Amino acid sequence: MSISWMRLAMLGAALGAAAASAQPLSPQDIIAQTRLQDLMRQCQRQAREEVPGTPEQQAQSREFHDAAMECLRDNRAWYPVGR
Fold first, then answer.
1. CA 31 to CA 1: how far, in whole Å?
2. How far apart are CA 21 and CA 63, in angstroms?
3. What's the Cα-to-Cα distance from 65 to each of 46, 53, 57, 69, rounded to whole Å?
4. What is the DSSP string of 21-55?
5. Which range has the worst mean pLDDT, 20-24, 30-34, 53-57?
6. Which residues contact 79 (CB under 8 A, 6 or more apart)?
7. E strands, 1-83, in order
8. Residue 83 CA to chain centroid, in angstroms?
9. Which of 58, 57, 38 shows the shortest CA–CA distance to 48?
10. Average per-residue pLDDT for the chain
């Protein structure tokens, strides 16, 4: 089962909001969240360069989704999100 890019972003935002309401974020949590957001933006830019079409077409494209997810998998070691 795959998660669409938009659902992944919504899940990240929901988890961040839930964590923020449960307890104050530590400096490490803030850094990890910032790194994850940077990685997601980087992967979106990279996928846009690889997949032709308008932003709307790209958002609906399986090829765009696959390229973005591949980027996330390839780069996750450089952007640790856990402690």
1. 29
2. 36
3. 11, 13, 11, 6
4. HHSPPPHHHHHHHHHHHHHHHHHHHHHHHHS-S-H
5. 20-24
6. 35, 36, 38, 39
7. none
8. 18
9. 58
10. 77
Q: Which two tokens stand for residue 75?
A: 């780069």
Domain ranges, ordered by start, for the chain: 26-77
- Residue 68 has which token pair? 């973005």
Of the pLDDT bands very low, low, confident and very high (cuts 50, 70, 90), residue 7 is: low
Q: Kindly state the tokens that stand for 67.
A: 């390229």
**73: number of CA atoms within 13 Å, CB side?**
6
Residue 38: HSE in the Cβ half-sphere, 13 Å Cα cutoff: 12
Amino acid at 49: E
